[in-house]
Amino acid sequence: MNIVEKILARASGKSKVSPDDVVFANVDKVMMHDVSGPGVIKVFDKLQKQGISVDKLWDSTKVWVAEDHFVPSAEKVSAENIVKLSNFTKRYGIEKHFKYGMGQYGICHTISHEEAMVMPGDVYVGGDSHTNTTGALGAFACGLGHTDVAYVLLNGKIWFKVPETFYFKLNGKLPDHVMAKDFILKIIGDIGTDGGAYRTMQFGGSGIDEMSVQSRLTMCNMTTEAGAKNGIVEPDQKVFDYLTRRGATNLNLIKGDSDAEYEKIFEYEGSELEPVVAKPFSPENISVVREAPSVELDKCYIGSCTGAKYEDLEAAAKILKGRKVKIRTEILPAAISIYQRAMENGLLKIFLDAGVTVGPPTCGACCGAHMGVLAKDEICISTTNRNFPGRMGHIESQTYLSSPLVAAASAVTGKITDPRDLK
Amino acid sequence: MDSFKNVTSIVTPLDKVNVDTDQIVPKQFLKLIQKSGFGKFLFFDWRYDENENKKPDFVLNDSKYDGSKILVTGDNFGCGSSREHAVWALLDYGFSVIIAPSFADIFFSNCFKNGILPISLDEKTVEKLQQETRPIEVDLEKQTIKTLSEEISFEIDPHKKKILLEGLDDIAQTLQYEDEITEFEKNSKIPSVL
């Protein structure tokens, strides 16, 4: 069995599972946020009206809650949703509720690894499509709709069809100017936005072994954009160290068997990869940066679960140090812990000296919610994960997706720029 | 959830691929959580201009499709964000069947939670149905789509079919099997992860 099959077999009490088997898996952790949470509460209300008891959750210690999409509250409706969420966690005794304005909080997928909420081998589900991100820690992590989250909260388990696995093998490490974001965009360009539909996308090979945990998180995050059920990397010493530093204990570094089967294997040579962008209006619309259209950019956005982890800010700082931005640029660290490290290590000063506006952790303009959304005809380069029409604001705005290195280099020139070409 | 009845209706052709949930319900409406009333936000940015006037060239604004219950669209429908609001909006607008060559995973699953039947058919058949101007009949029990000229059959997972036909949601469904679940729990020895 491969790693996903082993996790699902363990969680469903079976000795062996194969692709297309339907399993009833015990869930180890479940997450909801300020958009999915109020939806879940609505489902609870409906169930109660039907006479189904919602007095008790299956296990409130396995539930955690993030505030990220519309926080700090963008206007009164989102403020009310935060109150609803707070009442819910209080009523059910959910202690892991990361509240803005009260220490650590941030984008749910960032909190999942910054706070070691999810362990290797876990079945982890969340009310958000980018829940896939956390597969980089060696968990089976996938997103659910509101009704499914409500179901898990009450029952602690859920049905899955065991997915087929596509294995992406990276031979050799990425060059310094190429980031994990470039690699995952390249893959999405190759297989398309439905190329991974219903499948696991597993990443391995010497290039992935060399990659930091944070880079692997970027890879798994955007498996969602390829339509995948989940993304995963087999956990290793780096994952062990990453989680142990964040207080985790009793880690189980689960791996697939040596005779594990994969539906298809894709191979990439690290040395051949280049910085790329995804042009409007699809993450599969890939161009090498040096061949990208010469457009006048209006904005640069460095934020989101995909592109505002500490390592992403470090990459941006490497470019912005001693330079000035030529277009409006925002940097929003994805969690308070990252914000704090960025302050302690001098990154915030580099950003402010360069002219950047530094904002609070939030999904913000990535999902067009607030904090710098785009006007009609505005063109933005962004470290986020989606560039559908209107995703970041006006339906006639445009977003180019890129790595933090490319985004920062482009902020300096005002045009889409390969970091190697920066003077 | 209401049980799924046979649907006879003209089809609304939406000839686009990779329609994502941001297009189905734009983000500004996500803060709202009532399940009803979302129909007015369906495909909002495609249906209305900046002054919220209807855009005449968008298919939903063409009165000949008024009352249609069947949306026929392109590959990978419902990709992007997991927002269940997308399904609420389609249902509230009046669609109960969506036909496409393929669907995004979470969206597909959300449909069954809310009583919408998503049907995958090969691209050629979908193209043909998009051009069908006369009413068609979708019979879930028999797994067929009848047009005036032919009968097309479709596949559906038997478990999902039952959910729709009986109007069960997953929670109600599980409660039917409470004894079996308890039994399963008692007997299952969960081995530790190797």
Structure description:
The complex is a heterodimer of chains A (423) and B (194). Chain A folds into two domains: 266 residues, Aconitase, domain 3; 144 residues, Aconitase, domain 3 (2-Layer Sandwich), CATH 3.30.499.10. In chain A, the strands form five sheets. Chain A has a five-stranded parallel β-sheet. Chain A is α/β, with parallel strands linked by helices and 423 residues long. The model of chain A has no long low-confidence stretch (mean pLDDT 96). In chain A, α2 packs across α5, α6 runs parallel beside α8 and α11 packs parallel to α14. In chain A, α2 links the parallel β2 and β3. In chain A, 61% of the residues are buried. Chain A is globular, with a radius of gyration of 21 Å. Chain A is built from 14 helices and 18 strands. Chain B has 194 residues and is α/β, with parallel strands linked by helices. Chain B has a single domain, classed as Alpha-Beta Barrel (Aconitase, domain 4), CATH 3.20.19. A four-stranded antiparallel β-sheet of chain B has the order 1-6-7-8, with no helix packed on it. In chain B, strands 2-3-4-5 form a four-stranded parallel β-sheet. In chain B, β7 and β8 form a beta hairpin. Chain B is globular and about 55 Å long. The relative contact order of chain B is 0.17.
